[in-house]
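Course assignment 3, question 2. Fill in each field.
Student: A.L.
Task: Predict the tertiary structure for the chain below.
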Amino acid sequence: MRDIMQAAVSCVVKAAVVVALSSLFLVGLAQDRAPDDGLLSIANDKLTLGLRTQGGSMVRLVLNDDPDKVNPMHTGLGHFVCVDGFGPVSTEESNAGLPGHGEAHRVRWDVVSSEKNDGATTVSFSATLPLVQEKFRRTLRLVDGENVVYIDSQLENLLAFDRPINWGEHATIGPPFLEPGKTVVEMSAIRAKTRAHSDQSPQPPHRLASFREFSWPMAPGLNGESIDVRPVPANATYGDHTTSLMDARRRLVFVTALHTDKRLLLGYVFRREEYPWTQLWESYPGDNRLARGLEFATQPFDVPRREVIQTNAMFETPTYRWLPAKSSISSAFLMFYTRVPAGFRKVDDVVVEGGKVTIFDRTSAVKIELAASRPL
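Answer field:
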């Protein structure tokens, strides 16, 4: 995963030379003129989302009325999709040119349609993945009056045989939203496991025990202590990685990140059957170089394809999805970003129903209701 940091820098350079989309009238889609970022901006009256056409990474999300324009996304990584592949590649795959974390975050995404209709802005992208012989499509929708981005995706198999595939949504938060002692992650998880230390690239020292099962959110420490992995600890220099199995009793599950001082909340809601696992990758090497992944995926860890398929299942749950011959599979999730009221301290639950996203802080008896006109 760490090599993606370098890849992201390369993507920024490549994005600067994106061919102008002059042949399309992009209603509600404004191309940023800065030559060094190559961003496309999609906005409604509440939010502005910036993404790169080279790799489709969502790297900027701000509240339009926020004077500080606090962006929760890690500006180098942002939210990128890992498909088909989530983790390092084998020697043979590397020799064949296949990059880590799949092709989709490396290739150009073409805008195939854009429209503004009845207060909704819809933009669709398509990306061809020549090495794995697949086609990836993604549609983003923003509706006026809503603090929500709706994201629908489709992966098409261009080959004539069924195949197991790896798919991860690598959402990564960073400073100033990610701040020691002030940013807390919550999710609808139960069973969890720490990553084996031998499986990880060199990084800051670990504080969690290697490859140990635990009940979210209290993870086993190196010295046998229990560690709450929800908050970013103050004055810490370490790196760790855990995976959590999302609650099988729910159709829709969530992961959120709350900055308690700034009173800003980022969240994702997704279908549990499509993304059973959520990985928390934490990298705090010091000097304010912080990154935390909120990675919901088809697999528990970002490891090579062979290992994912040979593992087959963890906690009695599959570690991959099937992509049938000459067919497509899909996924849908939503992302929300909002201020929270004074007194709101913790996300206990997120529910999407009745045309709204409701976020509960049961301890403080506070709830937030966001308009969400599109069902998930």
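Instructor remarks: Residues 3-15 form the longest helix (13 residues). The chain has a mean pLDDT of 90.
Grade: pending
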